[in-house]
């Protein structure tokens, strides 16, 4: 008899298990939302201090680059005055190869330093509407030949040639000029590294373009530093920067894939030869991560679980990209297919993180207005290069 | 076996009936427990209150969602959900999930174009160009018009928004995935632009165990044709194969851009009740057409999820350097090896080429003989003998068809050549008889990059040929004095998916987009 009831109970237990499996999932619990916004606990001052520090270091590097570019220009002007019939680049290279190498390596190092500090700041500069103008002008904007809505500005070379909206200073002008990836920006192709060939990035820069660009970059950096110093950061700025800049992974990974860092000699890009796009992504995430660290109390007060999710999302994404960059620096050359796969993975992580940040903004009653007009100058910048007096290189 | 459980003397009945089975007591009790379980289970399915759907509410679940025109989150597209809510990105069953039970259908679908309506590079590029063209003019929100059909899951979950308001879902890479069609409960084929209403936010009411326990209920929820005739109707297809640019996009009056449904509706195929699915979901559409034309009888409906159409490019896995993988936006979802996938694509490609060749007939009407130093006239007729809509159809600013006519003498010397294709530049003879829609912007400049947001006007270089109609094109050429007869007339009808300009300027690829042959005919003319 006992066996009978055991069997019966097994049958009923089966029913219970099936019903349990079929039961609707319990709705997830949600933290109660507090309407109190302890914005006072957030440290926006720390965000600004970071931005000012990076902008200052960038300005130091552009000033150094400018001084070297003027020295290079002056040396060529000296040769022109002494040997008007000669090719000044050939004369300079023939007579002072070591000094020229030092100068070019120094300018490239300055460009790299300035660029790195900018990238470490880009998440903030590009993401805050009142500062975003400088991102387009200095780092991201296309030339008018590619986009009719390009940043309007004029660059007048020392020889009087005028360039209308020629693109951004770092990648459309500075990098191709310093690394010789555009023929018209090359003064003379030379064997810079002494391997018997004149390969990629082995060229003396065209002096007029170099001088004007270096001076313009320094002026723009100075104006950006002034703007960052004058910036009064708000919670809206902080969340807007995170919401708009976190999801840009795809674009950077695509450019990384097409750059010489991944595509090697097959790359036809004139930019991203000096520094890997992974550096840019790392820098952007670094500034956004710091931003979130300083506004966490606001989110934590309304939804502690969400706050933890966002913090973990930043940690995960920063580690993911940082790991790739570390491997690349150690010599790993990724294939385009791998770059695609990594880009997709990073974008998924970024999309999830950005959505959480937007949710957090909503819960903390922080308005995000994409229609908000960004700051633009009253009139387009017009920069005229000033030629230094001729002087020998040594 | 009969269990008289409701009888007053059920103990006796039970004893008599079960004893006949010679089961021992524990087994009988186990059996009874099991039967009670089954009855209770089915009662639970139908009697327990239905769980709440998983739809997302704007401003509650999804903040900062931009709706510039009205309070319809899917505008300016026409897709809807039955409860008006958005889809929960964390809760969408993928095609791979469905494949656990529906492996054959999954394998068919995965090589179809429906599987890549969103992620394919050609679409992504066109979308980016349109969005960029309307930057700062709600370009992102306007993309909802396109994504209603191309990326319906992305649209429904709220991803098409200037701010990133929802997290990722692997299903967004699946284009027109299973649950989009299989939750459609109504369609408006004349409105188009994705005019489907989806009962999609309740599909997770049933767990996998319940699907197994009550497959009929699952079939009902998934709108099986036996429950929902819409699934087998052209109305369903028309919801996306009718494209009308809405006024919200650029302020102009609505502009009809694709009319494939109406073309079918006006054809004898509609009169004969031959639906889109009969042909395009047939395992071998070319065989379907052949059988239909030969017998006049509608072949038996056999359903395949390959949705064979005309995209011979995105199915050509013989393209070099994994180009097809790149063009399709990456490898498919899991559960299939790359080799299996490429083999499936090749089979799809074969079916597409067969279908293209079954769509049209060519005939030449030429004189029996011609005299040297005279003008010879001939007619070439293209008959739309197999398509249930106009030929060509679809986005005709890119897809085009043209006729090549070549006359040679007996020595092989070319006397006349119209409609040549330059395989070095990808250009077609500018004087060819070509079926193409020319889009122009407000300045009258042609638009070759599918920027539909900026189209002001359009015209056809030659009207598409309606179903069962034909188009006769006259040609004439001069017969040279020294022409050696007989003359040979060769005609070829070519089809091409896109303009070379799109490949160069939009895709920025150094690749020649090849045409495919639809039909050929030849004739001989003697010389006097």
Question: How would you describe this structure to a colleague?
Answer:
The complex is a heterodimer of chains A (394) and B (528). Chain A is mainly α and 394 residues long. Chain A has one domain: M75 peptidase, HXXE motif (A middle domain of Talin 1). Chain A is built from 13 helices and five strands. Chain A has a three-stranded mixed beta sheet, with helices on one face. A two-stranded antiparallel ribbon of chain A has the order 3-4. Mean pLDDT of chain A is 88; it is low at 19-37. Chain B has 19 helices and 19 strands. Chain B is globular and about 105 Å long. The model of chain B is unreliable at 1-8 and 12-16 (pLDDT under 50). Classes of the chains: A mainly alpha (394), B alpha+beta (528).
Anisotropy-based shape of chain A = globular
The main β sheet of chain A shows up as: 3 strands, mixed
Q: Kindly state the number of beta strands of chain A.
A: 5
Using only C-alpha atoms, the radius of gyration of chain A works out to 27 Å
Task: Report the total helices of chain B.
Answer: 19
Helix content of chain B: 25-40%
Q: Mean of the pLDDT scores of chain A?
A: 88
Largest interface: A-B, 40 and 39 residues
Q: Helicity of chain A, in percent?
A: 55-70%
Strand content of chain A: under 5%
How would you describe this structure in keywords?
heterodimer; A: 394 residues; mainly alpha; A middle domain of Talin 1; 3-stranded mixed beta sheet; two-stranded antiparallel sheet; 13 helices; globular; B: 528 residues; alpha+beta; 6-stranded mixed beta sheet
């Amino acid at each position: 008899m006992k066996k009978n009831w055991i069997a019966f109970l097994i049958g009923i237990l089966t029913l219970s298990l099936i019903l349990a499996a079929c039961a609707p999932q319990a709705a997830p619990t949600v933290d109660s939302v507090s309407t109190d916004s302890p914005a006072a606990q957030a440290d926006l001052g720390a965000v600004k201090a970071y931005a000012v520090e990076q902008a200052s270091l960038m300005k130091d590097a552009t000033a150094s680059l400018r001084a070297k570019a003027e020295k290079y220009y002056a040396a060529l002007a000296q040769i022109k005055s002494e040997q008007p019939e000669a090719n000044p680049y050939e004369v300079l290279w023939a007579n002072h190869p070591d000094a020229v190498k030092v100068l070019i390596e120094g300018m490239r190092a300055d460009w790299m330093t300035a660029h790195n500090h900018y990238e470490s700041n880009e998440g903030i500069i590009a993401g805050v509407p009142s500062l975003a103008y400088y991102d387009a002008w200095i780092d991201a904007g296309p030339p008018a030949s590619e986009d009719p809505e390009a940043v309007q500005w004029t660059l007048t070379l020392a020889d009087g040639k005028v360039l209308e909206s020629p693109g951004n200073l770092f990648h459309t002008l500075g990098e191709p000029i310093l690394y010789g990836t555009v023929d018209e920006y090359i003064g003379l192709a030379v064997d810079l590294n002494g391997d018997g060939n004149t390969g990629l990035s082995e060229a003396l820069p065209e002096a007029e373009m170099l001088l004007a660009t270096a001076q313009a970059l320094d002026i723009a950096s100075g104006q950006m530093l002034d703007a960052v110093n004058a910036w009064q950061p708000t919670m809206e700025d902080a969340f807007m920067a995170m919401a708009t800049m976190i999801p840009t992974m795809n674009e950077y990974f695509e450019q990384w894939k097409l750059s010489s860092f991944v595509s090697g000699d097959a790359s036809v890009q004139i930019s991203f030869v000096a520094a890997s796009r992974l550096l840019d992504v790392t820098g952007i995430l670094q500034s956004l991560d710091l931003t979130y660290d300083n506004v966490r109390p606001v989110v934590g007060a309304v939804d502690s679980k969400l706050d933890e999710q966002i913090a973990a999302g930043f940690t995960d994404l920063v580690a993911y990209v940082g790991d790739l960059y570390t491997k690349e620096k150690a010599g790993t050359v990724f294939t385009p297919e791998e770059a695609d796969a990594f880009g997709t993975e990073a974008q998924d992580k970024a999309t999830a993180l950005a959505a959480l940040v937007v949710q957090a903004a909503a819960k903390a009653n922080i308005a995000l207005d994409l229609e908000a007009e960004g700051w633009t100058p009253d009139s387009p910048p017009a920069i005229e290069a000033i030629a230094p007096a001729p002087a020998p290189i040594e | 076996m009969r269990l008289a459980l409701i009888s007053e003397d059920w103990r006796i009945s039970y004893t008599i009936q079960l004893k006949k089975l010679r089961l021992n007591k524990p087994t009988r009790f186990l059996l009874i427990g099991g039967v009670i379980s089954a009855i209770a289970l089915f009662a639970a399915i139908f009697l327990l209150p239905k769980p709440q759907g998983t739809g997302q509410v704007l401003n509650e679940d999804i903040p900062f969602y931009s709706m510039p025109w009205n309070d319809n989150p899917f505008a300016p597209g026409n897709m809807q959900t039955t409860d008006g809510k958005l889809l929960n990105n964390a809760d969408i069953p993928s095609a791979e999930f469905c494949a656990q039970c529906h492996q054959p259908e999954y394998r068919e679908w995965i090589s179809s174009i429906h599987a890549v309506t969103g992620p394919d590079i050609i679409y992504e590029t066109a979308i980016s160009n349109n969005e960029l063209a309307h930057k700062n003019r709600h370009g992102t929100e306007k993309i909802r018009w396109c994504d209603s059909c191309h990326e319906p899951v992305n649209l429904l979950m709220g991803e098409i928004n200037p701010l990133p308001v929802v997290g990722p879902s692997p299903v967004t890479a699946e284009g027109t995935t299973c649950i989009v069609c299989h939750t459609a409960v109504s369609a408006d084929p004349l409105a188009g632009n994705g005019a489907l209403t989806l009962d999609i936010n309740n599909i997770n009411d049933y767990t996998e165990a319940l699907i197994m326990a009550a497959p009929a209920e699952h079939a009902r929820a998934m709108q099986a044709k036996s429950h929902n005739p819409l699934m087998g109707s052209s109305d369903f297809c028309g919801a996306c194969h009718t494209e009308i640019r809405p006024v919200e996009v650029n302020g102009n009056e609505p502009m009809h851009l694709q009319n494939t449904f109406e073309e079918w509706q006006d054809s004898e195929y509609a009169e004969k009740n031959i639906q889109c699915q009969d042909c395009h979901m047939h395992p071998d559409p070319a065989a379907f057409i052949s059988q239909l034309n030969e017998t006049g009888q509608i072949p038996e409906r056999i359903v395949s999820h390959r949705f064979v159409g005309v995209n011979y490019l995105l199915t050509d896995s013989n393209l070099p350097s994994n180009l097809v993988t790149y063009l399709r936006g990456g490898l498919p979802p899991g559960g299939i090896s790359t080799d299996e996938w490429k083999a499936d694509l090749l089979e799809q490609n074969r079916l597409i080429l067969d279908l293209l060749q079954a769509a049209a007939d060519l005939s030449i009407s030429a004189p029996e003989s011609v005299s040297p130093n005279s003008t010879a006239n001939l007619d070439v007729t293209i008959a739309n003998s197999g398509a249930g809509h106009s030929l060509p159809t679809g986005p005709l600013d890119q897809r085009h068809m043209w006729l090549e006519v070549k006359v040679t003498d007996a020595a092989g010397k070319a006397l006349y050549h119209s409609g040549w294709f330059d395989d070095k530049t990808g250009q077609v003879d500018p004087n060819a008889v070509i079926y193409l829609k020319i889009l122009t912007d407000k300045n009258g400049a042609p638009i070759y990059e599918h920027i539909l947001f900026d189209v002001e006007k359009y015209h056809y270089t030659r009207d598409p040929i309606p179903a069962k109609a034909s188009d006769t094109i006259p040609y004439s050429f001069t017969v040279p004095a020294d022409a050696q007869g007989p003359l040979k007339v060769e005609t070829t009808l070519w089809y091409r998916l896109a303009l070379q300009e799109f490949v160069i300027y939009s895709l920025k690829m150094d690749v020649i987009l090849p045409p495919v042959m639809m039909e050929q005919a030849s004739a001989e003319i003697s010389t006097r």
